């Protein structure tokens, strides 16, 4: 009997917690738009990125007060590929839809979390965790909030961080 109850509870939890079961068609469409966008970034496909971002798109992060428009984001990606980046590999860990009911950020947001591996033109490879939140409306991303550890990336690229007391000013002190 205990075995039957265990199996029943496990099966119930599996069905109740399966994200595919709880998604509406609209929710899955929003997740698909984000997946298409991330795929376009990985493929360095600026035309596809342009189509998937709304004209009033704004991205914030990873720094709290960073805000980037669609034009600036596309320009930054183009410059990055031309000057620094050879390739990006994205290993998706989780995607889902969350609903924020009140406040400035109210609406449905797609969350996408994964591991990024970036190969740079100088031969260095960097791996880091990435978490993006994307607000999608009418088949386009209208807002993104991205979180990743810049210090970890820069450390892997060879940058050194010193406490302020260890920094020598122009006079040699």
How much of the residues is beta strand, in percent? 35-45%
Largest sheet: 6 strands, mixed
Mean pLDDT: 86
Shape: globular
The total beta strand count reads 6
Please provide a written account of the structure.
With 173 residues, the protein is an alpha+beta fold. Helices cover 38% and strands 36% of the residues. It is built from six helices and six strands, in the order H-H-H-H-E-E-H-E-E-E-E-H. A six-stranded mixed β-sheet has the order 2-1-6-5-4-3. Helix 3 runs antiparallel to helix 4 (46-52). The chain is globular.
Write the layout of secondary structure elements.
Elements: H1 2-17, H2 19-22, H3 25-42, H4 46-52, E1 53-60, E2 67-69, H5 70-83, E3 85-100, E4 107-120, E5 125-137, E6 140-148, H6 150-156
Concise summary:
The chain is α+β, with helices and mostly antiparallel strands and 173 residues long. The protein is 38% helix and 36% strand. It has 6 helices and 6 strands, in the order H-H-H-H-E-E-H-E-E-E-E-H.
């Amino acid at each position: 009997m205990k075995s039957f109850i265990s199996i029943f509870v496990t099966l119930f939890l599996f069905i109740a917690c399966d994200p595919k079961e709880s998604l509406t068609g609209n929710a899955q469409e929003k997740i698909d738009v984000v997946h298409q966008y991330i795929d376009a970034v990985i493929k360095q496909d600026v035309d596809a990125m342009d189509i998937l971002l709304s004209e009033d798109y704004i991205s914030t992060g990873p720094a709290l007060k960073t805000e980037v428009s669609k034009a600036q984001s596309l320009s930054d990606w183009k410059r990055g590929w031309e000057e620094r980046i050879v390739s990006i590999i994205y290993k998706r860990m989780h995607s889902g839809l969350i609903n924020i009911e009140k406040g400035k950020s109210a609406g449905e947001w797609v969350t996408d979390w994964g591991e990024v591996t970036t190969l740079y033109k100088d031969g260095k490879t960097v791996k880091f965790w990435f978490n993006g939140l994307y607000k999608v409306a009418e088949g386009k991303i209208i807002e993104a909030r991205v979180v990743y550890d810049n210090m970890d990336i820069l450390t892997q690229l060879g940058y050194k961080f010193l406490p302020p007391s260890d920094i020598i000013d122009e006079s040699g002190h």
